[in-house]
Amino acid sequence: MTIELTEKVIIVTGGASGIGRSIALSLASEKAIVCIIDHNGQAFPDISNEMEEAGGKAFCLQAELTNRDACLDAVNQVFEKFERIDGLVNNAGLNDGVSLENGDIKKFMESFDKNVGHYHTMSEFCLPHLKKSKGVIVNICSKTGETGQGGTSGYAAANGARLALTENWAAKFPSTGIRVNAVVVAECWTPQYKWWISQQANPEEKLKEIASKIPLENRMTTCEEIADTVLFLLSPKSSGINGQLMHVDGGYVHLDRAVAL
Fold first, then answer.
1. SS3 state of residue 142
2. Average pLDDT, the chain
3. What is the DSSP letter of 115?
4. Same-domain check for residues 241 and 195
């Protein structure tokens, strides 16, 4: 079964690493035109080569997503080159640990801006093009916006906003044909997560403890599993899905964790 993404122009923010990278490579394997917008230009040669080897077309733009002018310029460059935009994956973000105890309102607002401000900005600038193409927005979100985490006030608040924006936009634009959904991530094995585990006193034991609370096979979610769900939501095969918060987490958030013990 084809998921009908061939030649579709899809923007992926933060697509040079982690979950975004897996999304970009999976899109490339479906022969999509993948437009990565990321601040890490050094990663572009490798990811571009991999996407082209996978059968897709790569277009990488270096931009600081907290800069509105940079976001507008990137979106304009994508449209000028391909004359359409069919999908936007808002993905970039960082759990920066800004909390009530070790932060202040300035740090909180900075964390909020870098974790959700560009979701709004990129969607704002892509909106006219998505109306023309009856396109799709997929917001990558963290479970922290629902469950809390402790010690991550900025990141948790930003993810709460990501979830709220997903539902609000989905309610606003269905008459235009635009669909908006979210993929909610819990414990996913990314380079960032791997680094965090390595900083623990006993990394192997810490990872085992976390995995034991994940109902599905007591294992971490993979970036590829997140990507597969994102591709489905971008595809016409999910044409009836709008305003949904899709949890790809092995049941971590909603199932009784006692079943995983």
1. strand
2. 92
3. I
4. no
Q: Which of 119, 155, 193, 252 is catalytic?
A: 155
Exposed, middle or buried, 113 (CB in 10 Å: 0-12/13-18/19+)? Answer: middle
pLDDT at 261: 64
Pair of tokens at residue 103: 């932060």
CA distances from 194 to 137, 188, 198, 204, 255 (A): 28, 10, 6, 11, 25
- Domain check: are 102 and 207 in the same one? no
Q: Is 155 a catalytic residue?
A: yes
CATH number at residue 95: 3.40.50.720
Tokens found for residue 191: 């380079």
Q: 221 — phi, psi (to 5°)?
A: -70, 145
Please indicate, yes or no, whether residues 63 and 151 belong to a single structural domain of this protein.
yes
Q: What is the pTM of this model?
A: 0.93
Cα 7 to Cα 186: distance, rounded to the nearest angstrom: 31
CB-CB contact of 74 with 121 (8 Å):
no
- Number of separate helices (H) and strands (E) present in the chain: 10, 7
The residue type at 110: E
